[in-house]
Fold this protein.
Amino acid sequence: MEFAFIIEKFILIIVVFVITLVIAMYSTLAERKVAGFMQDRLGPDRAGIFGILQPLCDGGKFFFKEEIIPAGAHRPLFILGPTLAIITACIGSAVIPWGQALTIGDRVVELQVADVNVGILYIFGVVALGVYGIMLGGWASNNKFSLMGAVRAASQSISYELAMGLSIIALLMVTQSLSLKEIVAQQEGFVNWNIWAQPLGFLIFLICAFAETNRVPFDLPECETELVGGYHTEYSSMKLGLYMFSEYINMFVSSALMAAIYFGGYNFPFMYDLGLSANWITIIGVFVFFIKIIAFIFFFMWIRWTLPRFRYDQLMNLGWKMLIPLALANIALTGVFIILKDKFF
Amino acid sequence: MQSLSNRKKILEQEPMNFWERIYLPAIFKGLAITLRHFFMKKNTIRYPEETREYSKNFRGMHSLKRDELGRERCTACGLCALSCPAEAITMIAAERQKGEENLYREEKYAAVYEINMLRCIFCGLCEEACPKEAIYLDGPHVPPEYLRKDFIYGKDKLVEQPFINLEELSLNK
Amino acid sequence: MTVFYFVAFLSLFFAVMTIISKNPVHSVLYLVVTFFTFSIHYILLNAQFLAVVNFIIYMGAIMVLFLFVLMLLNMNEDSEPLKSIFVKAMGVIAGMCFIIILAASFKVLQTSPPLEIINPEIGLVGNLGKVLFKEFLLPFEISSILLLTAMVGAVLLGKKDKKKA
C-alpha cells in the first residue's frame, strides 16, 4: 500500500464525513423550514439570513445544556447508546460511490471510500446494528416509556429488514452484482436506471427505508403522543443531540443508497453526448448525485408533514402481511421476466 | 332510539375498493395538498419589523385626554369608576387652586387617577360613561411587566402628553 | 498471523465474559461482540459474504431478539429461581462428561496438512451461490424446508386457541 493511496483515502474519508455532518446539520434546519412552508408558516428565520445559522445555534445549545443521567440508569450503557447510534449512522456512507474516477495528473482517484464486494449487504449490516443504539439507550434509561420505545424499535426494525432484504434480492437478480460501484456503473444514461426495471421493488424498499430510519409514519419508537419521547425520553444535552443527529445521518445515507441503486447514482441523461472531458463528467455527476440525494431528503420530510403515524398493529400488519408477500411476488415476477427475456430476446 | 326530527341519516360504510385499500392514491392526494401549501403565500407576520394592523374599533390602553389648550379634561366625577364592571378604576378628587386654570379645565380634578390593568377587561364602558370626553381606550397593548404593582397605572402613564405647538416652540428658539 | 491471534484472543475473552457476567443483558452484549469478532475472522479468510451475513443475521436479528426478550423479562438476582441440588448435581455430571470428551479428543489430536486455498475468491458471493445451487442443491433445499416447517410451527404455537378465548 503506497503512501499516496493512504493520503487519498484519508482525504476522501474526511470530505465524506464533513459533507455527511453538514448535510445532517442542515437537514435539521430544512426539516423545520419544510414543516413551516407546508403549514403556511416561514419556519426559523432569525439566526442569519433565512435562518442559515440556526443549526449552529442549536448545536451550541446542545453542548451547553445541563447533562442529566438519571440516578436509576445503567451508566455505561446509557452513554454507549447514543455513541453506538451515531457511529453506526456515520460508517454507513463508506461504500457509497459518490462519482466516477477522477484523473489528477496520472493518478486515478476513485470517489468511493471502499469498494466492498458485498457493498449493499454491508449497508444492511450497519443498519441492523443501528438498532442497538436505540435499544441500549432505551433500556439503560430505566424508564418504562423508554423501554417501550426500545422494544418497538427492535421489533419494527427486524420486521422491516426482512421486506427490505427481499426487495433487494429482486434488484440483485437484475444487476447480477452486490458491489455498489458496479450497480451504479450499470445504470448509464437514463433508461438503464433500475427504477424502470424494479418499480415495485423500489416502492417496498422506500417504505422499509422509512421504517428503518424511524421516520414518520413509522416513528413509533419515539412517538411523542404515546411515549413522551420514546427511547430518548431521559436524554438531555448533546446525547439527545447525537440521537437526533444519527436519525438525520441515517436519512442522508438511505437517501444516498436509494439514489445510487434505483436512480442511477451519479449517472445523468446524455452524459456522454455533451462532449465534455471525463473529469468534468465526474464533477457534474457528483453534483447530480447530490441533487438526487437532496430530493430524497426532501421527500422524507414531505412525507413526514403529510401522513399521520401508524398504529402499532397496523405497522406490523403492513410489514408482515403486505410488504413481505409483495416482495416475494416481486422476486418471482422478476425471475419470470428474466427467463422470458433470455428466451425471446 | 327513535328519531325526533326525522332527519337522522344512517350512514353505511361501504367496504373499501382495491384502490382505497392500497392507500397509495390517497397518499398521493395528500402529498399534492401539502406541496400546494408549500408554494402558497405565508401568513406569518415578522413581528418586530412588521406589525399587524389593528381594527378601527380596537380598544387598548387608556389615555386621559387634554383639551385644545392643553388642560386636563377629567373632572373626577367618578362615572367611569362607577360604570367599570371590573372595578379597575379609582380616583381621588381635588379642588383646583388659583393659578392652575391652565392645568385643569374644570374646577374639580383628579389628583390621583389609577387604573389596574390586570383587572381591566377593556370593555370600553368608561369611555362611554365619561361626560367630559376625557378617557379613551385608544392606546396600544398594555406592555408586560415583572411585578403586579407595575400594572397599576397612575396619571404619569395615563395622561396624554401636553400639547406642544411646534410653531411656538420654534419661535421661542 | 498477529491479527489472527489478537482477534482470536478477543473472541475467547468475550465468550468467557458472556458466561461469567451476572447481568443477562451484559451477557447478550458480550455475545454480540463475540459474533462481531467472528465476522472479522471471516473477513480475514476472505469470506466477505459469510462475514456480512453473520453480521446481519446473528448480530442484527437474532441477538436483537435475545435482547428484546431479556429487556421485557427484566431479570435480576431477586427473580432468579433457586436451583435444586438435583440440578446442580446434573450440572456437575455434564461438566465432567464434557471434560472427558475434551481430554479424549486431545489424544487423537494431530496437525493437519496446511490448507491450500485453490481459489482465493472461493468465499465470494458468486462462487458460494454456484456451490450451493449445484453441488449442494438437495441439502440446501431440505434445510430450507426444515426452516419453513419451524416457521409454520412457530406461527401455529403463536396463534390464539379459539376454544379457550
